């Protein structure tokens, strides 16, 4: 008896730009790799979940890339960066920085799904204060928050870790935080629980070593 081929879930979005949008061509390509009974799942993190045959994952990723769609693994990985809509322009609100940060961290393996978020001004449309790692552009620098949590009775805003980082400093600090979490976090330990166990000050000290 033939075994049914396994399907793999992919997380898909259209990258970091003005608003979370998909164009008709992108939608058409997505539909091309769906069966009649398949469904798209829209997440709160500006992503679509689609299931594709395991044998076609590389093909799908390549075809999606051709129309400006980005694919990420689903599970215990760093999610793609949730962002604001960059309402005042790419340079003014730091879109190039958000794109570069996402390129460096999205898809990295971690003990439990990690949600980073970015906003280009203190209005905070990208909701950085209620996500695991939050970046807020303030004037010419970037403030970094960690340990936010949006859901549950223990929901809380993130704690300010450091202020007015320049882009290269921001990339370095965020990458090091993720590295420490990946190395020292317990299996399926959410980031906030890791911070509480490891210690906020201990983590801060590790970043200055």
Structural write-up:
By secondary structure, the protein is α+β, with helices and mostly antiparallel strands. It folds into two domains: 67 residues, Alpha-Beta Plaits, CATH 3.30.70; 114 residues, Sulfite Reductase Hemoprotein, domain 1 (2-Layer Sandwich), CATH 3.30.413. Helix content is 31%, strand content 20%. It is built from six helices and eight strands. The strands form two sheets. The protein has a four-stranded antiparallel sheet with strand order 2-3-1-4, with helices on one face. Strands 5-6-7-8 form a four-stranded mixed sheet, covered by helices on one side. The radius of gyration is 18 Å and the shape is globular. The mean pLDDT is 93.
CATH architecture heading of the largest domain: 2-Layer Sandwich
Give the total of beta strands.
8
Structural classification: alpha+beta
Sequence of secondary-structure elements: EHEEHEHEEEEHHH
Q: Would you tell me the overall average pLDDT?
A: 93
What ranges have pLDDT less than 50 throughout 5 or more consecutive residues? Answer: none
Helix content: 25-40%
Domain module tally = 2
Full CATH superfamily name of the largest domain:
Sulfite Reductase Hemoprotein, domain 1
Alpha carbon gyration radius: 18 Å
Secondary structure tally, helices: 6
In CATH terms, what is the fold-level topology of the largest domain?
Answer: Sulfite Reductase Hemoprotein, domain 1
Shape: globular
First-last Cα distance: 59 Å
The CATH class of the largest domain is: Alpha Beta
Biggest β-sheet strands, sense, barrel: 4 strands, antiparallel
Strand content range: 15-25%
